[in-house]
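re: ur question from yesterday

yeah so i grabbed the chain u mentioned. its 593 aa long if i counted rite. heres the sequnce exactly as i have it in my notes:
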Amino acid sequence: MINLTNSELDISKAAYDAEADAWMRAWVATKELSCSGWHGFGSVRLKRGASLGYGMTINLQFMNSTKARLAKRASVLFLATAFFIVPGRQGRGQDVQHLSITQAGGMPGLPVMTGIQPGSNGVSLTWDGPSGYYQVFQKAGLAGSKWEPLGKATNLVRQATISPLQGNTFFRVSGPTNAYAGWSACSECHENIYATVVNTPHASAFETLDAQQRTNRALLADSTVGYGLTTGFQSQTATPQLEGVQCENCHGPAANHAASDMDPTVRPRVELAATVCGGCHTGPEHPTFEEWNTSAHAKVVAGVDLNSTNLIDSCGRCHSGSVRYSLLSGQEPRPGDADVGIVCATCHDPHQTNGNPAQVRYPLASTNDYYITAAGLFTNQINPAINLCAQCHNHRGASWTNSAAPPHHSPQYNILLGTAGELESGLPHYEPASHALLITNQCVGCHMQTSPYQGQAQPAVTGHTFTVGSYNLCLTCHPYHPERLVQFVQGIVSNQINQVAQDLDLWASNRAPASLWAKYKERAWEYTMPGQLSSGGPGPDASEQSLISTNIQKARFNLYLILNDGSYGVHNSPYSVSLLNQASQWIQAELDD
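ran it thru and got these structure tokens back, copy pasting raw so excuse formatting
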């Protein structure tokens, strides 16, 4: 562990102001920081490991949370040390790099080191900050030697691989000047966006603070532009043009761009990562980012490469926030950029105000049937009048005639409306649940219930885990122990699911064609790519599927629709029971034949 002291690295504000090249400095005043524990970045611990023989953990722990946010916001130099040697020396970057850490106020106005990782041909450095050119420097030890430039100030990708390394090496990175302009400068070219952004809650963030709060350092970073930096907000009197959350909070300093709008190297960043929003929407009083980060929305499908050409425009439509954003914008998804979850901007439009709450892109309730498919032009399938959640949580064109795989794990909206599945009549049907008609905000009503901040022991709940953590809403219609009613319904439907699956296994062993039973055993009724109810290998192939009777194919379709809905009847219990009853009747007819 490297111990850094005041005498070694203490940086005064005056010295910082004089640093025209915006050096990344480690803010290590010992009264504020302790270089131990995990909390972000700071000193570097090295230990022996595999590959190159060394592993790294970057550690920093603030003693005061308010000072933590301000110190991280003001940091402009990072020092890192390395005790190994690897061959070669050059810098290179990956195709797509997203903001990986949260910073108070949104997009960092100064360079912030985000990682040091040993590799096969050197050590990889990554950092973040505003658009522009960066340069990496190194020196051996804290004192005595000079900082040596590694290449020229031409790095635009905010990462580099450095080799060879000498023992006890430190690095620092210089970056572009952090000149803030205020959104009046942006409005000269982006007048359409400016006209709507000024009407959003972000614009009035500073106005919501009372007189005492307007001098609170912990709050100003989240309600002004560039607070804590020399060109950022200073006070109401000195810099009124930087009040509120403006363009540069999310896109980074823009004065250089305003002065040279045709220079692509200083064009403000368009960053989709939720970490931009997480710099402000965080903490016990509004832990939106923390909750989202634990949700399934924050992750992409495990073990699936959504960047592959056959998946990026199909699965990526709903499983990748970056792909969906590109497709909605009429653009081709960027290569290698599909591994971004469903982020804030997937559901919320930061630039627009509309009739929907919280600037969500679509309404929170609808009663028209809807689904998208994995094929065809995506923008032609979007219906802006449909429930926000239903834009993805629909059956995606599932049909009992598809024998390749079970219905996707997303038919929630169609089950809620009672429009998916097969009944005896074979005709289209519409049997909406009372939940679809009586709960004002449908999905959000149950899955995003909120509660106010009560104290450190009872932080606020914003609903962004998207799990049902409270039954308070249910009390309106179910005043007596609604949680027991949920358990009762789920118990009935779970038993039905198990019974239908057992009946299908019974059909496989007693009524399936001999060739199917001999080859697939209990999987004789399954799809070619079986669902989670079967294990041991594939099901009948495309040509063999014709040997499975229509009744069995419809029964398995209903079974997997209800199973993959995931609510076990809560979304629409009467309709769920009807589909499973119909499945049982079809199977029994085959067993009796």
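noticed a couple things. The first strand starts at residue 33 and ends at 34. also The chain has a mean pLDDT of 84.
anyway ttyl
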